Amino acid sequence: MNVTLTPSRVAGTARAPPSKSYTHRAILAAGYAGEATVRDALWSADTQATARAVELFGGDVDRHDDGTLEIDGFDGRPEVPADVIDCANSGTTMRLVTAAAALADGTTVLTGDESLRSRPQGPLLEALADLGVEADSTRGNGQAPLVITGPLAGGEVSIPGDVSSQYITALLMAGAVTDEGIELDLETELKSAPYVDITLEVLADFGVDAHTTETGFAVDGGQSYAPAGGEYAVPGDFSSISYPLAAGAIAAAEDETVRIEGAQPSAQGDSAIVEIVERMGADVDWDREAGTIDVSGAPLSGVEVDVEDTPDLLPTIATLGAVADGDTRITNAEHVRYKETDRVSAMAEELGKMGVETTEEQDSLTIHGGASTLEGATVSGRDDHRIIMALALAGLVADGETTIEGADHVDVSFPGFFGMLEELGVALERRA
Predict the structure, then answer these.
(1) Residue 119 counted as an annotated binding residue
(2) Choosing from 72, 205, 270, 312, which is the catalytic residue?
(3) Which ranges of 83-237 would DSSP assign to H, the alpha helix?
(4) pLDDT along the chain (432 residues), means of 10
(5) Which of 2, 286, 375, 425 supports an S-S bond with 355, CB 3.0-4.6 Å?
(6) Where does 3-phosphoshikimate bind (predicted)?
């Protein structure tokens, strides 16, 4: 699907979808349990991949119309899957499920689409091998397809912290149901640390104790997953909140606001987008108790933003920088290159098609907003939901029409994204 946007002013109320990060963890945690109910779950292409994996491990996921998931888990002992686990485009699924597969007494094969088969899994495979599991890349390059043969008993292992925090999450979640538990010693500084905080929060909500140590993280073995009252509720997603928030900051109608609901505080590092937008000059009011954010437009100025802990915000910040006066410099961004696509280069190149001047370095991206004039153009969504949504924001204020190719990939995390824009007053056209 291609989507063409016409410059528009926005106003009204938007509701954040549930958090993708929390939903992944909650579905798998419920799988590790005997049974559990997950409320307010995001049902997207990525989270459905995790649900399919739980079912292949012997669990059952039953979705109701209100978004509630009733999950009969595999009670800490996954079966050997009867089929290959296809993680589609979901890197979170592959990493979390790879460690779960190591618990099975037999062999599991995992694969994904072309993009996912290019993403690094080597450090996780090496850690599992050090823990006594046969963990191989079929092509010997540390990338999927992966072949995992367990069972995993636990132990102590070293792992880098600067490639993906999902490795740590995967091992902590699996380690709770091993005999020995798992102790993780970080070889390098941890990047995307708030995502591990999310994991610790979800584990605690499911009755599992995992904790930090002087050198990393640890989780005792022999634990059971069981949320209080048998239920867990997924909070709103701040990665997704960044889009209506930015839309209000750059395109709110005069004397109008965009209100975002579902913005209760949580461990999500991406809640930093509220402060970033405010620092750039927008008028932002976050009622944390009510979980609402009101934002209205104002002239924006460039800022410097470190995305070491918030890599998913880079596309949104890049678009804000394209509208702002002066330079917006995004630093500590090298790990953002290893997402669904190289998001640093993708944003530089696609915004460049729209007349935006950028300077790209290996670990940073600078957007020269003051030297740029946003012009409508045909751009590629790069099969990446966050690139698509960020470019759509640019289309709200570009001079002329903006067409985004491959826009259907928003289904990965925000299936109702374009419908939300229309409800806020955006003029757009979908073409098959």
Answers:
(1) yes
(2) 312
(3) 91-101, 122-130, 165-175, 193-205
(4) 98 94 97 97 95 98 94 97 97 98 98 95 98 98 98 97 94 98 96 94 98 97 98 95 98 95 92 98 96 96 97 97 98 94 98 98 97 97 97 98 97 94 98 90
(5) 375
(6) 20-21, 25, 164-166, 192, 312, 339
